[in-house]
Amino acid sequence: MSMVISWLFLGYFIILFAERAQSLVRICRGSFADLYRSRFDGYVNTLTIISLIATVVMLIFACKGFWQSLADKSVIPDYSMLTVTAGILLVSGMVHTEYTVAPVQFASYGMLIVAMVLRCVQLSEGSGNRFMLWYSLIFLTVFSMAIPVMYRSEIKNATLFHIIEAVVSLALVACFTFMLRDLFLGQGNDLLRWVPMLIAVIGDAVILAMRWKENVNTFVLIFIILSAVIFSAGKIVFAVIN
Questions:
Q1: 150: which strand partners?
Q2: 151 near 127, Cβ under 8 Å?
């Protein structure tokens, strides 16, 4: 199963990297300057480039055992660095660049989620509380869907909105990454943590409110509500069974 998990991570890396790379290539077909046609374009494209470069560097130099684990089932990769690398690449997926192909991105995210499920299968046998582990997995999956993708806005205070949107998105990607790391390291029995949830609720609420008249991000709205419900119910249940 460890080998399968490694291949799922590889699929996530290849598919999302390729989708992000094709976007950048198509943008600058005419001129490299097209990457910086506006401040918004400059930010999202630069962030995407940095994310892709950092991912390659991490995969080559930091993810010990990952490449060997693709061919040798006895090798367990360094899940700490592997999940951090996954989070670094996810940064590029949370900004909407020109020529973004959303279905392809979702395919890559699907591979990461399946890897999370298989890792929980591995860990559940030695877990002190299987219910809490699987409940935490459900919460983490739903939480990941509540991370807002950074979109261009034309509202009156667009610059302020984009700054808030960027900060919230990066903060929630960081929260997701460290919870993902804990899950893969066998420390994910209780991922119902206040700081990530508060950042998500407050940050998403501000973003949704500021852009409400221009466009309601129904996807984020649904999943932040669902995250809050699962979080609240889980806190009560966890307190009872503990």
A1: 95
A2: no
| Closest residue by Cα to residue 40 from 156, 161, 146 | 161
Question: What CA–CA distance (Å, rounded) separates 129 from 28?
Answer: 51
Per-residue pLDDT of the chain (242 residues; tens, 9 = 90+): 899 999 999 999 999 999 999 999 999 998 999 999 999 999 999 999 999 999 999 999 999 999 999 999 999 999 999 999 999 999 999 999 999 999 999 999 999 999 999 999 999 887 778 999 999 999 999 999 999 999 999 999 999 999 999 999 999 999 999 999 999 999 999 999 999 999 999 999 999 999 999 999 999 999 999 999 999 999 999 999 87
Number of other residues whose CB lies within 10 A of the CB of residue 172:
21
DSSP 43-95: HHHHHHHHHHHHHHHHHHHT-TTHHHHTT-TT----HHHHHHHHHHHHHHHTB
DSSP 104-172: HHHHHHHHHHHHHHHHHHHHHTT-S-HHHHHHHHHHHHHHHHTSPPB----STTHHHHHHHHHHHHHHH
Instruction: Read off the amino acid at residue 240.
Output: V
Q: Which pTM does this prediction carry? A: 0.96
Separation CA 162–CA 152 (nearest Å)? 7
Return the biggest CA–CA distance within the chain: 61
Cβ atoms < 10 Å from Cβ of 229: 11
**Residue 31 class from Cβ within 10 Å (0-12 exposed, 13-18 middle, 19+ buried)?**
exposed
